[in-house]
Amino acid sequence: MQRTPIELRHLQTLLALRDTGSVSRAALWLHLTQSALSHQIKALEDFYGLPLFVRKSAPLVFTPAGKRLLALAEDVVPAVDEAGRDLTRLAQGTQGTLRIAVECHTCFDWLMPAMDAFRQRWPEVELDIVSGFHADPIGLLHQDRADLAIISEHEEGEAVDFHPLFRFQMMALMANDHPLAAKSHVDAEDFRDETLITYPVPDDMLDIVRQVLRPAGIEPTRRTTELTVAILQLVASRRGLAALPLWAITGYLERRYVSARPITPQGLTAELWAATLPATTVRPYIGEFVSIMRETSLLTLPGIELI
């Protein structure tokens, strides 16, 4: 009998290709280099003598052979994942908690879909967001008030495990008729005589201040508000400028409510990470939630890049 080279990792790769639509994005999803993923695909194609997808198609188009293996993947991978979760339940019991602390005001746009997907896989785990905004979510981990923290910066030496989520672009927001809307990008100097509208958080948590304004010695007038929609309303009425993630404002830009420009010629990028105590390695469902956050973000948020 002919030995088949099909392994679970091959089937997981096919699902990643289906969901992301490209080899490069699938490689990021699977924590592989693009070269390693391409080699994996080519090994399957060489064994069977059939291409699995149309090269240079965007989004990726599967061949009949690719569709057949994809159908197998759609049956097998979920079944294997479900069996793994069941074995974990048998070994550790069915009860558990996952309390999430968030320092990012705009994170709920992508966090809620991830939580919904997690509940379908782990319905017995009590999932909750620690109420309120927290300037030190890692402190909540050490106080046993949270099991996972969403943070924008990670520092080596902390007694926690850091899990990369994604990188994204911060955009400067201005009214549609603001003179800065005529520029291709804005610089630190453009903020000098403006009012900067932000969330009421420490400056070290504001990428626009930490990475752009403070190094340039720019200290604009400040105004704060808790709500994203309030920031956008103030910007639209020419009360000041703001800086928000591209994925958080795409709908408003499509409706031409405000205008957005890159910050500096190179653009201003920021990152999000998850942090857990090392002891959470005994609770595999927390690790799965990290994977779900990465997966749902890659599929639903515009302009992000997995770290």
UniProtKB/TrEMBL annotation:
GO molecular function: DNA binding; DNA-binding transcription factor activity
UniProt xrefs under Gene3D superfamilies: Periplasmic binding protein-like II, Winged helix-like DNA-binding domain superfamily/Winged helix DNA-binding domain
Major location (coarse): cytoplasm
GO biological process, one term: methionine biosynthetic process
Subcellular locations according to the entry: Cytoplasm
Positions in coiled-coil regions: none
One GO CC annotation: protein-DNA complex
Alphabetical list of CDD domains matching this protein: PBP2_MetR (cd08441)
Keywords, comma-separated and alphabetical: Amino-acid biosynthesis, Cytoplasm, DNA-binding, Methionine biosynthesis, Transcription, Transcription regulation
InterPro entries per the UniProt record, alphabetical: LysR_HTH_N (IPR000847), LysR_subst-bd (IPR005119), MetR_PBP2 (IPR037406), WH-like_DNA-bd_sf (IPR036388), WH_DNA-bd_sf (IPR036390)
Pfam families the UniProt entry points to: HTH_1, LysR_substrate
Protein family (similarity comment): Belongs to the LysR transcriptional regulatory family.
Protein's recorded name: HTH-type transcriptional regulator MetR
Organism: Pandoraea sputorum
Taxonomic placement: Bacteria, Pseudomonadati, Pseudomonadota, Betaproteobacteria, Burkholderiales
Underlying gene: gltC_8
